[in-house]
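Thread: quick sanity check before group meeting

JM: Hey all, I'm pulling together slides for Thursday and realized we never actually wrote out the predicted structure for the chain we discussed last week. Dropping the sequence here so it's in one place. If anyone has concerns about the input, flag it before I start.
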Amino acid sequence: MTEKIRTPDGLVIVDKPSGFTSHDVVAKMRGIARTRRVGHAGTLDPMATGVLVLGVERATKLLGHLALTEKEYLGTIRLGQTTLTDDAEGEITGSVDASKVTRDAVDAGIAELTGRIMQVPSKVSAIKINGVRSYKRARDGEEFDIPARPVTVSSFAVHDIRDTVAEDGTPVLDLVVSVVCSSGTYIRALARDLGAGLGVGGHLTALRRTRVGPYKLDSARTLDQLQQDLTVMPIAEAATAAFPRWDVDARRAKLLTNGVRLDMPEEYVGKGAVAVFDPEGVFLALVEEQKGKAKSLAVFG
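JM (edit): ok, ran it. Output follows.
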């Protein structure tokens, strides 16, 4: 009888293809990894490509604690056209000649959208309004408002401006941009708001996520590559990349795995989740400080 090959615990950094939802990628990975225990950390719109972090087997317990607070994107914003979804997937709702928009005006508009700003998410987003997904309300033709919320855009830079003509004959400007922002920031909302501020409308035509927290595109693999060779970042390596590391001696390791709350060294107080390792380098648990003690968030050892 052939012994079943066990899928290793860890993270899989996927280079998501366009046209796939995050749930589609999870379903595909369940087939590749031959396990139901697969989850994702943070969604990526179907149109977008790039870094999507998945957890496999016991690493699914890590996902909710990963501090994936900063994300990085490359994208293309089209000035001169608005769409129903604020990206290229929605029908065009307005066209305005954008050929007279100057670089100075673009830079001023981008400056307004940089830093800590209040942003209204797109109506076709997955945000829940009174328990119902926003995109479902929009699909059903409901009139509703989404409250603005604070987000941080650390960097918003233009790398290229291209004059072109849209399919309907409207002169438009395509901006190639990079954005570094906090989790929860909608890049298509930035495109919409930049175009609105310039008086010509705007939407996102392409988006590629190049980084999520510490995980970058150079460590990501396509689904086809993963089908050929399942590359899993071991759980210990993933924890070391994402959390402060606390190495304990054998006695403390045993106490921790037996449920005893250890005294938390002062250097880890206020650091959030901390990864605990035993003397052999085995990842034991995620803990956080509570009243000077290490409270377990998830146990792995």
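AS: nice. The mean pLDDT is 89. The longest helix spans residues 22-33.
JM: adding both to the slides.
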